Amino acid sequence: MKEHLTFVLKSVIVGLAVGFLYLWFFGSHVKTDKSTDLAPFSYASAINRITPSVVSIYIQSNELIRNPGGGISPQAPYINKNYLGSGVIVSENGHIVTNRHVIDDAKRVVVSLWTNEQFEASFVGADDFTDLAVIKIDAKNLVPARFADSDTVNTGDVVLAVGNPYGLNQSASMGIISGTGRQGLNISQVENLIQTDAAINQGNSGGALINSLGDVVGISTASYNQIGAEGINFAIPATTTTQVVQSVIKYGKVIRVSLGLAFLTSYDHIRFRIPKPKKGIMISGVIPNSPAARQGLQSRDIITHINGTEVNSSQDYRQAALSFTLDEEVTLSGYNQEGEFTKNLVVELPTKN
Q1: How many CA atoms lie less than 13 Å away from 106 in the CB half-sphere?
Q2: Of 53, 86, 101, 215, which one is the catalytic site residue?
Q3: Domains in the chain, ordered, with CATH?
Q4: Choosing a second label site near 86 at 20 to 30 A (CA), which of 30, 47, 184, 208?
């Protein structure tokens, strides 16, 4: 029995000794991955990509306010009111997109780059329907932002709002996409807005809403400021922005083409007691001698698809019409009392009354 205990004790001692020696010689060579502790996941690369493309905008308006230090010579009793905003560079030639409401009634617009260089900006054009505007500066070595296809974004995607809130240029806030296709907010006449909980404060308007790669998915435009509301902010989709910017740079405005159709809104269905279709939108009127009239479309016909994409509201139609170009052939699908139909219409300029 004694010999057995002695054998077990020796075995334990030898085992401990071998383990100690292994750790002594090889333990210092065992590498542990401390990167998780030292470098948590970061969106710095996305911010670094967009930073050279986001500008701060300083607006001197035509509105006069009482000078806080005025009334005593030689100070003037009134001064011009100043505003803050943001913008995104869209071309190497100095074109910058921002919100129309940012530069409304502007007497002077100054753009500050990420390098702190400042330039006077000139007005190129604006679009009241989408609340977008384009200004231009005479600067070199500009870095245009890369715009993503905002039609592919999903609720839950991580986004960052980059801009000039309260004059704190190149500030970033993080959130997610809370919803897409938001309408009826009276922010603009054509609404297909991205909702996010990334903070959009005063001065952020016109700035970039980017994805985790640093690509622009929207232009920050407004916050929902009802009492008790938190984290409800909106951006104009990048796809809409690209369409508007291209037209404004080329023509100085958005050239809106027409198919000659008008549609009932949800309110119209209630007001006129006309049953709302389960799918699609109902035509309320057709302009004589328009593409729609020439293809035989009539009031009360239902349009369900435009170029294969479902439409279920007049806002959907307006959004689709933004992408129409002159002489383009557009396919409308729908139904009426006679059954289903497909019509090919050639887009043209609106008829002048």
Answers
A1: 24
A2: 101
A3: 50-66+79-136 (2.40.10.10), 150-251 (2.40.10.10), 261-346 (2.30.42.10)
A4: 184
pLDDT exceeds cutoff 80 at 24: no
* Distance spanning both ends of the chain, measured CA to CA: 116
Res. 61 pLDDT band, cuts 50 70 90? confident
pLDDT in tens, 290-335: 999 999 999 999 999 999 999 998 878 887 887 787 888 999 999 9
- In sequence order, the 6+-apart residues with CB closer than 8 A to the CB of 82 are 58, 59, 60, 61
- Concerning whether 131 is annotated as a catalytic residue, the answer is yes
d(CA 343, CA 298): 12
Contact (Cβ atoms closer than 8 angstroms) between residue 251 and residue 333: no
Catalytic residue among 173, 205, 220, 223: 205
pLDDT at 338: 93
The pTM of the full predicted model, rounded to 2 decimals, is 0.74
Residue 100 near residue 126, CB atoms below 8 Å: yes
